Amino acid sequence: MGNEILLESGTNEVEILEFFLGDQSFGINIAKIAQILPFDRTKLTVIPHSNPAFMGALLWQGRTIPLIDLKIFLHQPPYDIEQPIVLVTEFNGVKNSFLTDGVNRIHRVGWGAISPMGPLLDRYSSACTGSIHILDQDILLIDFEFIIASINPETSISAKHIDQRVDAGRSDKMIIFVEDSAFIRNTISSQLKKCGFDQVDVFENGLDACNHIHALAKKSQKEGLDIRSALSLVVTDIEMPKMDGLALCRVIKKELQLETVPVILFSSLINEQMAYKCREVGADAFLTKPRVDELVVLMDRLLGYNI
User: Fold this and answer.
1) What is the CA radius of gyration of the chain?
2) Is residue 57 within 8 Å of 45, Cβ to Cβ?
3) Is this model's pTM higher than 0.70 or not?
């Protein structure tokens, strides 16, 4: 499930699976779902002395994968459910599973309908990236990468193998980095600056980045300058409120015709189907999270700069 439902490239639309915990609805990109199944406690091996939200190892298709209780992680009040539902996910090339109270339906929405987390939803701000208002209710989009990183940091954004030699060649590159997850945004932007990329403009959604790039292109054209003097490279996530990374790349490459500006799609969703979509919108490269070291090597290559 999920991989078959990928939408046409760059349409700025997404399929969101709505699930619930108690009386609150949450959402996940259907492209991250490998399977939805009833919870069978006989297939769970409890691991002692672990994170309270980590239920143990779930036997799934002949292998064991982590099972995380979302209700405990999100500090939801206890609520007995006769038949809980497990969401088996795949992102960043890793499978995990999450216990929920149940699923409702799939919503096809534009990323423009998804709002960043507001102050009224601060209690979920670290674990959620945005919300959608549908049928008089808010569906909160879970930051599953943040949850996995909190429970198992070893599988998170990694900078362990990164070459942090600072060189003047990186310092004059104008980089735009777009990422809706505050956790990933702060981690990667910090690592890029440690590597000598001193001029990194960070945006939390594709629309704000798109407007900024449009303004740079207009200013460069007016002044008769090459766009590369104002913008060296764009690194963007795919899943984001307001405008996704595929749509952003399409605008950069095909509407603004900034073919000389390299665009890297850095996403947990990269697989064979998504790779095709990245090429279709004109991306120069695509890379699955979470390896920051590979991202830096790729950036150097596309910038024509190697140390």
Assistant:
1) 20
2) yes
3) yes
